[in-house]
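Hi U.,

Before I forget, here's the chain from the pilot set. I'm dumping it here mostly so it's searchable later in email.
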Amino acid sequence: MISHGPVTCDLDFNRDGLTAGNIHLDHSDDAHAATLVPVPVIVLRRGEGPTVLMTAGIHGDEYEGQIALRRLVHDLPLDELTGRLILLPAFNAPAVRAGRRCSPLDGANMNRAFPGSPGGGPTAALAGFVLEHLVPLADFVFDIHSGGASGLYHDQAFLCLAEEPRLRARGIEAAAWLGAPVTFTIPASTDYGDFDGAVLARGVPFLSSEFGGGAMVSPASLGNAVAGVRRLLHWAGVWRGDLAAPGTHYVAPAPAGKVLAPRPGLFEPAFELGATVEVDQVAGWLHDVDEPLRPPLELCFRAAGIVVNRYRPALVPAGAVLATVAAPISL
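Structure:
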């Protein structure tokens, strides 16, 4: 039995074959007088070799990754493995079951809860359990996100560029093998409570990703995620297939790259995800909900580059990020 405050697990992570069960969160509130909240965990192991940890569902309303990891269990022949694959297809299981970005148990965003704490509430306890007990087993960690209920993403790797040369090089290499159209890069940091920074701070190579979104499943984005997962397993040495690294285009946030809604309204976009745009190109028009005779407000891009995400709902609040532009870089 391993534990982190109210979180426990009695699975044997060293057993050969397929092992499936749950991490259990001991939780009590108005809706749960006495409950062991289950978080599914699957281990596939065959002999000695690298260990890869793959996670999805840190945000409960992001679905491509959750499905991709579930498909992997059924599609990947165990006798083709060399090493160990640990899967958390519903990392933030309470949020997954509720179809919400944040946990209904405490309202916390798990991707702001790292490094976690056994006494910091249910979300922090789950985050801390994985960081303390599962991440140290891994030679590489891959986390799959999507846009959730309010966002849509151009399929992309999300790479925090570590300062340590080995971690940085492994991340860049993994992104090339994932083979998403673009890899969005930012400097690694431990200031935001995210999974990326917490894993890199433990000295373990890490790559995140964004595939699709909009609280629905895109067949194209799901297909890209499934294919990318297989290539990463090949690259990491856990599974050998006849695969090659397709490469990617590295980008970084462009200065003034966010198109913001200055007021509430109905947004009419004039772009598609993945489009290349120029400075002063029209991004769309914001229509007033209550005054239809009021002329729509024209919004323009203030940076040149590639549109990597957009706000999904047409009805937008003031301050909504309607689109994000990233600029190509060389690594």
